[in-house]
């Protein structure tokens, strides 16, 4: 698999890659909190893969095993409004409305808005938490009213 780093197009695994990712993930899962020794066959060079990298690799393999497209985004990355909208699963005009309302910090580069990945994820985490609270309240109310859901 040809993988470059940064804000690139997502890589979608083939069916064979998804199966292999699942197999490798099951094996590596037993060592999720350990560093691993990796050997490069062509050179017989061995190196230690840090435990944090093993955990990231396991997350990557789990998504690949599900057939999901994968991309890597550095935490300090600045996103375009289109990239940010895609990550939130909303339309670009809706995202711009959020930016203009001050819901997510951004900066302007000329006439273009740029959003820090970390700020976007903070907004997502906050809205997800509010959504869960609202759903919990709705479920509690449903139970109180004995609606049978």
What do these coordinates show?
The protein has 149 residues and is α+β, with helices and mostly antiparallel strands. It has five helices and five strands; from the N terminus they run H-E-E-H-E-H-H-E-E-H. It has helices spanning 15-28, 51-65, 81-88, 92-100, 117-144; strands at 36-40, 45-49, 78-79, 107-109, 112-116. The strands form two sheets. It has a three-stranded antiparallel β-sheet. A two-stranded antiparallel ribbon has the order 1-2. Strand 4 and strand 5 form a beta hairpin. Helix 1 packs antiparallel against helix 2 (51-65) and helix 3 packs across helix 4. It is extended, with a radius of gyration of 21 Å.
Distance between the termini: 46 Å
Number of strands: 5
Poorly predicted runs? 1-6
Shape: extended
Strand order of the largest sheet: 3-5-4
Please state the structural category. alpha+beta
Compute the CA-based radius of gyration.
21 Å
Strand content: 5-15%
Helix and strand sequence: HEEHEHHEEH
Largest sheet: 3 strands, antiparallel
Query: Share of helix among residues?
Result: 40-55%
Summarize this, please?
The protein is α+β, with helices and mostly antiparallel strands and about 150 residues long. The protein has helices at about 15-30, 50-65, 80-90, 90-100, 115-145; strands at about 35-40, 45-50, 80, 105-110, 110-115.
Detail the topology: elements first, then pairings:
Blueprint (H helix, E strand, L loop, with lengths): L14 H14 L7 E5 L4 E5 L1 H15 L12 E2 L1 H8 L3 H9 L6 E3 L2 E5 H28 L5
Antiparallel strand pairs: 1-2, 3-5, 4-5
Helix pairs in contact: 1-2, 3-4
